[in-house]
Design brief:
single chain, 9 helices, binds pyridoxal-5'-phosphate, 8-stranded parallel sheet, alpha/beta
Length: about 230
Amino acid sequence: MNIHSNIIHLQKKISIALAENQRSPASLLLLAVSKGQNTQAIASAFDAGIRDFGENYWQEALIKIKHFAEFPILWHIIGSIQSNKAAQIAQSVHWVHTLDREKIARLLSTHRPTHLAPLNVCIEINLDEESSKSGISCQEALDFAQFVSTLPRLKLRGLMAIPTPVSDPDLQYQRFLHLAQLLSLCNEKIGLEMDTLSMGMSADYCAAIRAGSTIIRIGQAIFGPRAL
Ligand SMILES: *Cc1c(COP(=O)(O)O)cnc(C)c1O
């Protein structure tokens, strides 16, 4: 599996999707999801120009963050956070995409060191209202966004979602558009200036770009199929 050529290929497809939607290249961040990948794979992606990496599991993330301590990498947490890990996470990463509990939000803010910029956070929305999934419901989004915006050491950047996978691009687009509309609603109703939609993965990033995604989270299209 050639990570470098995967990235070149992906970037071409991303450029086309952006151009089709009259969007500038600077309006989208490609986040490489490196869960389950070793440090060699991450180094290959880094050499190909990737600077943002997403990890789901803290134990695994911490090993990699330490390994790449001297590299100009921005680390994003995209998995659920246990309260006993919140302090360490607040000290070590640049972004958290999966905020969905007040307790965790408070802990992250409390433990964000003052020598670092406020921690960038996105609220995870359970778009399909599936009880088995993490994230907060669309109904609760306004109140939760309002709460998070008051925490001094967090910077509320936007919303994130993992919609139920469907293969039809138009259906994918509808779900993503729903998240985009929720972001606008939150901004209008409570005067926030959220600028981030973290949506789109290997199988649906084109639809996400069309709906206004600003961060796509890509694993398999960069690193190849995951062995689980
Ligand atoms: C694994 C994962 C991704 C990447 O999924 P791919 O299908 O490999 O692109 C994106 N976001 C989250 C939250 C993930 O857990």
